[in-house]
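Many introductory courses stop at the sequence. We go one step further.
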Amino acid sequence: MTDWNTRQTLLLRAKNHDDESAWEEFVYYYRPYLYVIARRMNLSHHDSEEISQNVLIKLWDKMPEFDYSQQKGRFRGWLCTVTGNTVKNFLKSQQARLKRYEKVKRQEVEGYLNGVSLPEIEEIAESEWRTYIANLAWKNVKDDLHANARDTFLMFRQGKKVAEIASEVGVTEGSAYVYKKRVEQVLFKEIKRLEEEIC
């Protein structure tokens, strides 16, 4: 990971088509997020992959002219607009293709397209962003945690009682709460870092 640590910096670097490492970092952070948004719209795995790729291609083309300003809103807002438009265009093209299919095939594809929903993309994007960032933060910190702390935190997340956790880990109940709190602090710090870095 680079030493650039602000969201503006990654976006500014990704605007430069000559900075391949910035674009790779950008794709690393945003591709899984785009995929999840498409899946939440009830698109298939294959179609969600295609949507993610199409959005990234559009972003590659448009990033040099993108003017990031906090006053205009978050980068994710613009990203949602691009993603929503890509999904709508995809569905329109599928509908057009559908008209060319023979009747049996048409019914099969029609059933799939009717199952695709296009709810409020901003709402989906914001909800998925929180989950995505939390999961990414956990992935980044979990291997650096003491095994007892990691196990304790995960058991709390699974809804286990503190007495059961303390017994399984082999610590006092007070220590179990301390482990949980320490992991939450580390996780919160990493979430904040990621939110500053990737917007």
